[in-house]
Write a structure and sequence with these properties.
The protein is built from two helices and eight strands. By secondary structure, it is α+β, with helices and mostly antiparallel strands. Bound molecules: D-MYO-inositol-1,4,5-triphosphate. It is found in: Cytoplasm; Membrane.
Length: 126
């Protein structure tokens, strides 16, 4: 099944660059600002790094920590009305933070959508 060790840990996806926009913080709308972000799916949280090399540095230096998104109680859904872009899904956290994630490649974004949804579902059953 190839070289993807994620097969051993079904809820964890290795880093990849996706387009990210935070559109609400604690329920309060924010101005949309799309940025390319290195995204890593951990068991119970999503990690946003500015760059791939920050992931390596964060293991060594405490000043390089990523933005962590708590997936417990989060909602994940495709959206066509929050953006003019294609292939966009939204994550809404239990604390009212809203993120859009997007990639031009459909299979890439599907892989992330499905894995994050699976992670959220398995935390719900916890
Ligand atoms: C926003 C920017 C975003 C766009 C957003 C605009 O303008 O063009 O890319 O979102 O549309 O408001 P600005 O840079 O001046 O803030 P999409 O690319 O996702 O469509 P929106 O207001 O309809 O969210």
């Amino acid at each position: 099944l190839g070289d993807n060790s994620a097969a051993d840990q079904p809820n964890v996806l290795k880093g990849e660059y996706l387009n990210k926009a935070k559109i609400a913080d604690g329920g309060k709308k924010q101005r949309k600002n799309w940025t390319s972000t290195w995204v890593v799916l951990d068991v119970n949280q999503l990690l946003f790094y500015k760059e791939s090399k920050q992931e390596t540095l964060s293991n060594l230096k405490s000043g390089c920590k990523p933005e962590g998104v708590d997936l417990c109680g989060a909602h994940v859904e495709w959206t066509t009305d929050k953006s003019s872009r294609k292939n966009v899904f939204q994550i809404t956290t239990s604390s009212g933070n809203e993120f859009l994630l997007q990639a031009d490649n459909y299979s890439t974004i599907c892989k992330w959508h499905d894995a994050i949804k699976k992670a959220v579902d398995s935390l719900g059953k916890g």
